């Protein structure tokens, strides 16, 4: 069965929506945050720990799984679910973001992209067909079309040509897709330009994908204003009966703003990445547990948090772990940060039910930005 989206309710005062993703591994409520297991694993966490955070869909990276251990090995293992020992839904990206971070503009052709492996410098070539072939073998529940990921500074002219190529690549990838249990998403690009976002969305929707992603909003150097514009310019042209995915976004305020604008699902490496650097999300903003002021702070990371880390460990102990280089410190903070974002989306779903999401945003931001720790 291909995963299907069900629209349950639209919030009265915004474009926010309550929905369900029906998958082969059960239903997933939306809005929802998806943690990222880049190399078929979330750094420092077991699948059981991730589940306890309230996560449902996990993202794995096509590029990294292709290089190591290879899609054929994962296929022989029975697909990503069995390889990872995860009995929940999995989304794979196309590998495009990583590829374009390694490629030079001259190496982008109509056929695909030439680039060098970040591991050994060997020459690689990825095409829309190859990206889909890899994802078919990975057997994820949600696969992404292969698109060009232009830099945030790209001109209108460059983006226009890039979008047209991405559309041609999307058609080729859709034709190559042959996994009957895997939904395939199209990706809308266009930077901060309203005309390009409209064109990209309309033309992508014409191909009738199983879901739609808004891409190009988490590139280095992009402003918050441009991110929100990209969402606002794309959403009106996406069908209500298909899921909407904002790629690479995990900042709490950006998730709230995305939901208010009509986005259903989000993913980002941010909660685990900042955890490894000693940072934790809290309702009062991010805190840096490496700081000396937490040396004798025997309270939880956050007093009202229900995560495993907060129920069992103190700020002082986690600071100690970070200070002596014990990886457990990053793991505990990862648990907390993932739970923080999944709890945030749970609260957003409740706010949509009660038609008070704008009030929720105001109260959250007022507290979150009050103290800069």
Task: Report mean pLDDT, rounded to a whole number.
Answer: 96
Q: Given the structure, what is the number of helices?
A: 15
Strand order of the largest sheet: 4-5-6-9-10-11-12-13
Taken in chain order, the helices and strands follow as EEEEHEHHHEHEEHEHEHEHEHEHEEHHHH
In percent, how much strand structure appears in the residues?
Answer: 15-25%
For the report, how would you describe the main beta sheet? Answer: 8 strands, parallel, barrel
* Uncertain spans: none
The overall number of domains is 2
Count all strands and give the number: 15
- Gyration radius (Cα, Å) is 20 Å
Give an account of the 3D structure:
By secondary structure, the chain is α/β, with parallel strands linked by helices. The chain folds into two domains: 4-267, Queuine tRNA-ribosyltransferase-like (TIM Barrel, Alpha-Beta Barrel), CATH 3.20.20.105; 269-373, no CATH class. Helix content is 41%, strand content 17%. The protein contains 15 helices and 15 strands. It has helices spanning 47-52, 62-67, 71-76, 80-84, 96-102, 128-138, 156-176, 194-205, 224-234, 252-260, 270-276, 308-312, 315-323, 327-353, 357-368; strands spanning 4-10, 17-23, 26-30, 32-37, 58-60, 90-92, 113-116, 123-126, 142-144, 183-188, 211-214, 243-246, 265-268, 279-280, 287-288. Strands 4-5-6-9-10-11-12-13 form an eight-stranded parallel β-barrel, surrounded by seven helices. The chain has a three-stranded antiparallel sheet with strand order 1-2-3. The relative contact order is 0.13. The mean pLDDT is 96.
């Amino acid at each position: 069965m291909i995963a299907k989206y069900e629209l349950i309710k639209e919030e009265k005062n915004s474009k926010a929506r309550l929905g369900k993703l029906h998958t082969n591994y059960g239903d997933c409520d939306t809005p929802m945050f998806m943690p990222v297991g880049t190399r078929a694993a979330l750094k420092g966490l077991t699948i059981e720990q991730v589940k306890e955070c309230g996560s449902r869909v996990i993202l794995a990276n096509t590029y990294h799984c292709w290089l190591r251990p290879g899609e054929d090995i994962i296929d022989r293992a029975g697909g990503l679910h069995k390889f990872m020992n995860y009995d929940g839904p999995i989304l794979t990206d196309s590998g495009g973001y990583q590829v374009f971070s390694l490629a030079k503009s001259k190496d982008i052709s109509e056929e695909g992209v030439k680039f060098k492996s970040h591991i050994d410098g060997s020459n690689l070539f990825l095409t829309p067909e190859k990206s889909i072939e890899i994802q078919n073998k990975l057997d994820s529940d949600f696969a992404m079309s292969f698109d060009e990921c232009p830099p945030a500074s790209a001109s209108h002219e460059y983006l226009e040509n890039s979008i047209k190529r991405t559309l041609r690549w999307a058609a080729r990838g859709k034709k190559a897709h042959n996994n009957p249990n895997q939904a395939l998403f199209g990706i809308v690009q266009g930077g901060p330009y309203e005309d390009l976002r409209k064109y990209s969305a309309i033309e992508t929707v014409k191909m009738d994908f199983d879901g739609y992603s808004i891409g190009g909003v988490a590139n280095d150097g992009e402003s918050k204003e441009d991110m929100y514009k990209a969402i606002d310019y794309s959403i009106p042209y996406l069908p209500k009966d298909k899921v909407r995915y904002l790629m690479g976004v995990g900042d709490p305020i950006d998730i709230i703003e995305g939901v208010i604008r009509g986005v259903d699902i989000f993913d980002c490496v941010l909660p685990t990445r900042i955890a490894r650097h000693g940072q934790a999300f809290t309702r009062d903003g991010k805190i840096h547990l490496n700081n000396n002021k937490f040396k004798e702070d025997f309270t939880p990371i956050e007093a009202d948090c229900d995560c495993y880390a907060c129920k069992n460990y103190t700020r002082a102990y986690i600071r100690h772990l970070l200070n002596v280089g014990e990886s457990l410190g990053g793991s505990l903070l990862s648990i907390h940060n993932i739970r923080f974002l999944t709890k945030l989306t749970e609260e957003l779903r409740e706010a949509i039910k009660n038609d008070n999401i704008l009030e929720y945003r105001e109260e959250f931001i007022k507290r979150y930005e009050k103290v800069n720790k």
